[in-house]
């Protein structure tokens, strides 16, 4: 049973200088629940492939890319630029999925409470309108990508955004990621086939509002 | 489903009807049964891919073209520009898949012959090197997209390219599409899961070199 505390996972993403002065590698965070825990909304086969194959590949390829980047740094600008797509893709994939696993929970669903709910009402009109907008943004992604609820620090308000492929929300838009919806076909196809809207309907049942609230409270500071 | 390949091209060219209105685009028939490409691409994938995914591009393309017609008639440039992504996405999806079904065949596989083979040897070194390059380009697409063997008319040579999402090869690069490999996850996931390279290995068994 994989049940590590949520807060710890973000530390795994920060490169840590080890005693030998070398970069610590990124590693695949444990899932905070069993592969089958989100059934019937997201099935075990999807969760297992998604976590142990797709996310794992992003982690491995990120480490390889960062090693190559380390070699090119201060020596070869062309090589660094050539590595940028792989860094964004695999780095973004690692960031996005690390957030995603914490955004979901077998005890999820329903609505948020307190300050987050008030902010949602203020910025979108109502929780239902917010749900509609994030669903539409996620369903409407053409190709692979993510729908996001983010926090705009500059303006001090919540914002919905969609990013293509594995482009990370904060790195490409400046918005702080609170809740992500993966709409790559691998996130739902085995269960929902081409009917992405059905996957969206289902995923609201497993949203971990405690986690989304934690992220919101953290970025308001 | 056993319609001649040649007739189907006409189905998606806009044709001015007697009333002077645009003819709608329509889903071309598959030239073979859904299960005909097994074991390389299974029947469930072919059925969903053709009757759901391609069909949706056709329907949405028709809707988008109608809206575009209205915007054009009014001279509403903003609306026209706002419709461009939907036109490229659904139009590209229709173009790409219409080519794709003809690029595959249950009697496919092996190598091309004659002039095409000579051109491949000239432009890539050997058939195997070409196969490696197109495979690498297709496997390497980050996200959804297509690998292509195209013809560069300006330079008179073959070229391999990759396009993101449903961006059509000719419309975005000028290359003439000869052979496309769909690497959207819906093209292989039900059978090959995350192992896109296995799908690529398998698809070479059903390439319709006559069509290419």
TrEMBL record, chain B:
Its EC number is 1.15.1.1. The keyword Mitochondrion applies. Its main location: mitochondrion. Coiled coil: none annotated. One of its GO terms (cellular component) is mitochondrial matrix. Residues 112-212 form the Manganese/iron superoxide dismutase C-terminal domain. It catalyses: 2 superoxide + 2 H(+) = H2O2 + O2. Keywords: Acetylation, Manganese, Metal-binding, Mitochondrion, Nitration, Oxidoreductase, Ubl conjugation. Mn(2+) binds at residues 49, 97, 182, 186. One of its GO terms (molecular function) is superoxide dismutase activity. Its cofactor is Mn(2+). It holds the Pfam family Sod_Fe_N. Homotetramer. PANTHER family: SUPEROXIDE DISMUTASE 2 (PTHR11404), SUPEROXIDE DISMUTASE [MN], MITOCHONDRIAL (PTHR11404:SF41). Belongs to the iron/manganese superoxide dismutase family. Destroys radicals which are normally produced within the cells and which are toxic to biological systems. Destroys superoxide anion radicals which are normally produced within the cells and which are toxic to biological systems. This is Superoxide dismutase. It comes from Homo sapiens (Human). The lineage of its organism: Eukaryota, Metazoa, Chordata, Craniata, Vertebrata.
């Amino acid at each position: 049973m994989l049940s590590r505390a949520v807060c710890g996972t973000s530390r795994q993403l920060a490169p840590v200088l080890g005693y030998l002065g070398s970069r610590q590698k990124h590693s695949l965070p444990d899932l905070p629940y069993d592969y089958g825990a989100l059934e019937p909304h997201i099935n075990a086969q999807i969760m297992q492939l998604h976590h142990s194959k797709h996310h794992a590949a992003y982690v491995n390829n990120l480490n390889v890319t960062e090693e190559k980047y380390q070699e090119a740094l201060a020596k070869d600008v062309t090589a660094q630029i050539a590595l940028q797509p792989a860094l964004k893709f695999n780095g973004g994939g690692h960031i996005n999925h690390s957030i995603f696993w914490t955004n979901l929970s077998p005890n999820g669903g329903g609505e948020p409470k307190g300050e987050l709910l008030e902010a949602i009402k203020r910025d979108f009109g109502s929780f239902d309108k917010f749900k509609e907008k994030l669903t539409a943004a996620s369903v409407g992604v053409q190709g692979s990508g993510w729908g996001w609820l983010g926090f705009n620090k500059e303006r001090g308000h919540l914002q919905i955004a969609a990013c293509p492929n594995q482009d990370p929300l904060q790195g490409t838009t400046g918005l702080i990621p609170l809740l992500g919806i993966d709409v790559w076909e691998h996130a739902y196809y085995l269960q929902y086939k081409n009917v992405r809207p059905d996957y969206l309907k289902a995923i609201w049942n497993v949203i971990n509002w405690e986690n989304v609230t934690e992220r919101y409270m953290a970025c308001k500071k």
